[in-house]
UniProtKB/TrEMBL annotation:
<keyword id="KW-0963">Cytoplasm</keyword>
<dbReference type="GO" id="GO:0003681">
    <property type="term" value="F:bent DNA binding"/>
</dbReference>
<dbReference type="GO" id="GO:0000976">
    <property type="term" value="F:transcription cis-regulatory region binding"/>
</dbReference>
<dbReference type="GO" id="GO:0005829">
    <property type="term" value="C:cytosol"/>
</dbReference>
<feature type="region of interest" description="Disordered">
    <location>
        <begin position="44"/>
        <end position="93"/>
    </location>
</feature>
<protein>
    <submittedName>
        <fullName>Histidinol phosphate phosphatase</fullName>
    </submittedName>
</protein>
<comment type="similarity">
    <text>Belongs to the histone-like protein H-NS family.</text>
</comment>
<dbReference type="GO" id="GO:0001217">
    <property type="term" value="F:DNA-binding transcription repressor activity"/>
</dbReference>
<dbReference type="GO" id="GO:0032993">
    <property type="term" value="C:protein-DNA complex"/>
</dbReference>
<dbReference type="InterPro" id="IPR027444">
    <property type="entry name" value="H-NS_C_dom"/>
</dbReference>
<dbReference type="Pfam" id="PF00816">
    <property type="entry name" value="Histone_HNS"/>
</dbReference>
<dbReference type="GO" id="GO:0003680">
    <property type="term" value="F:minor groove of adenine-thymine-rich DNA binding"/>
</dbReference>
<keyword id="KW-0238">DNA-binding</keyword>
<dbReference type="InterPro" id="IPR037150">
    <property type="entry name" value="H-NS_C_dom_sf"/>
</dbReference>
<feature type="domain" description="DNA-binding protein H-NS-like C-terminal">
    <location>
        <begin position="65"/>
        <end position="110"/>
    </location>
</feature>
<dbReference type="GO" id="GO:0009295">
    <property type="term" value="C:nucleoid"/>
</dbReference>
<feature type="compositionally biased region" description="Basic and acidic residues">
    <location>
        <begin position="44"/>
        <end position="63"/>
    </location>
</feature>
Length: 125
């Protein structure tokens, strides 16, 4: 097999015969290779099925959600006081519409409750 065949010196019939022999050998080898790969794939699937119940149990346990701090509202709709916005995420429709009509966002800021300012503190006597 070390020696290269002389294709130039072969007739068309000899080359065709060589082609058919090569095709047959390749077909047999490819079929056997495919069988080996299918066996390996079936083995891997069996191994995966054996491990799957273990991981399914781990996945079924509910994870606790991360506790986020409560975000208080910063803006309020003066027409509908129950509608508020914390300033996070997309602006609500009522605020977007008001801003388009010429209002400023500072107009909707929820102020501190009356009497909480520095000037209204009373000293105990």
């Amino acid at each position: 097999m070390n020696k290269k065949p002389n294709f130039d010196g072969m007739s068309v019939d000899e080359l065709w015969q060589l082609h058919e022999e090569l095709s047959q050998v390749l077909s047999v080898r490819l079929t056997s290779e495919k069988r080996e790969l299918e066996k390996r794939l079936a083995q891997l699937r069996r191994e995966k099925e054996m491990r799957q119940p273990e991981s399914a149990e781990a996945r079924s346990a509910p994870r606790e959600r991360r506790k986020y701090p409560r975000v208080f509202p910063k803006y309020r709709n003066p027409d509908e006081p129950s509608e508020t916005w914390s300033g996070r995420g997309k602006q609500p429709r009522w605020l977007t519409a008001a801003l388009k009509t010429g209002h400023k966002i500072e107009e909707f800021v929820i102020g501190k409750p009356e009497g909480s300012g520095d000037g209204s503190r009373r000293r105990r006597a």
